[in-house]
Predict the structure.
Amino acid sequence: MSGEYKLLIGGKLVDGDSTMNVLNPATETRIATCPRGSARQLNEAVAAAKKAFPKWAATTMDERRRVLVRVADAVESRREEMARLLTSEQGKPLGEAQGEVDLTAAFFRHAALLNLDPKILEDSDARRVELHRRPLGVIAGIIPWNFPLMIMAFKVPLALLAGNTIVVKPAATTPLATLMFGALIATIVPAGVVNIVTDANDLGNVLTSHPDVAKVAFTGSSATGLKVLGNVAKSMKRFTLELGGNDPGIVLQDAIPKDVAPGIFQGAFFNSGQVCLALKRLYVHESQYDEMCEELGKLARDAVLGDGLQQGTVVGPLQNAMQYEKVKTYLNDAHANGKIVAGGNVPDRPGYFIQPTIVKDMEEGTKLVDEEQFGPILPVLKYKTLDEAIARANASEYGLGASVWSSDRTRAKEVALKLEAGTVFINKHADIAPHIPQAGAKGSGLGVEIGEEGLLEYTQVQVLNEAL
Ligand code: NAD
């Protein structure tokens, strides 16, 4: 399939200066040879975005909205093909990939409904003051490998609606669906407004230190986020950092284990646990502990592990070899410091598979509990008092998401408001939609993404203050 995929630079679909192989994580075989962008091509993309900016910024909101809706239509028209490609390169079950493609289109469609009308702050005998929202210029959109399309769609439509242009850099192991997206929109979006350049994990630094980039919209690990922060600080670039998490879930004593277990399992094992907002440690009262572990254990044993393209697969492989090796160290930690309730093995087959694993009798101070495992292993921790559970849930450098599980909504809400997280879910975990903003607390990020609040982050405030 060599030559099928192209970079998008200045409205043209072009080959990379070199190539790289993209593997299917379920089989470890090559799906395609893909263009690999060079620093020269990345600079070319930034130059194209810079050139396109004044004209795009001068278009009306309605013109931009029409483009966004046409992009959504184009994505929907190729839903099945795009979802299959996404599963092939990313590993997630096909149903999840279809959901991701649908959400990608939904993010474009929803952005077209938003407004950036000027606000009148004062209109008196003394003065008239208006607050305008101006575009920033060239945006750098840096995307991780867990949701290549959806996270790209967190950024591109809002950046464009505000009048910016963008250079998107997908992750090295998941560029294909993004390049297919690029080919789809090449004739819809004016030349240079959206550019897509791949790399082999080596161009992030070039992009985030580029003098012509006005804002970096980064999603990825906290370690890389800190490097990005270093670069943007040097030139006062605007930025949003959506980083890692170690989301706690607290099951209140009134919850019925059998009823809440499926939602907890879904929140922890969706996309093989490779979700920033996945449930990554679960606190259960001692009176229900064994029952809860057993309910989750049953679900883990029943969950079909396999190739995402095969019907019936519930949990796919890890996305790449590096993550697979990393998650195996968490599995070793689970064996060493906890008791395996279900799973715990690495199947002897090609592909980056790890059995969905439930671990009990683990404590803080272990790798699996304290760090972000980003894989299909859930530690279940025992608590005695609710205050203790809340304190332990909050004792993390991260603060992305959290959840409370209870039959009593009022009580659940009281607990939710005590948790240090940008999003707290009640009786679910990880629910993303185009109108719901996402913001990491503490080490999980800086700034807001998605929705109206996310849109504002792609703008510069300009106040017009007029004497009357
Ligand atoms: P990563 O940080 O390794 O890579 C993310 C992106 O950054 C990739 O495109 C990569 O090529 C690029 N990159 C690498 N070095 C760079 C540099 N020096 N400067 C700029 N960019 C650079 O992350 P990952 O392993 O791809 O993704 C997993 C992580 O992402 C997890 O920690 C997860 O929690 C986090 N994540 C967060 C959110 C959120 O919204 N908070 C969403 C999804 C994933």
Summary: The pocket of nicotinamide-adenine-dinucleotide is lined by residues 142-146, 151, 169, 171-172, 201, 204-205, 208, 219-221, 224, 227-228, 242-245, 276, 372, 374, 400, 438, 440, 445 (CB under 6 Å). The chain has a mean pLDDT of 97. Residues 21 and 33 are 5 Å apart (CA to CA).
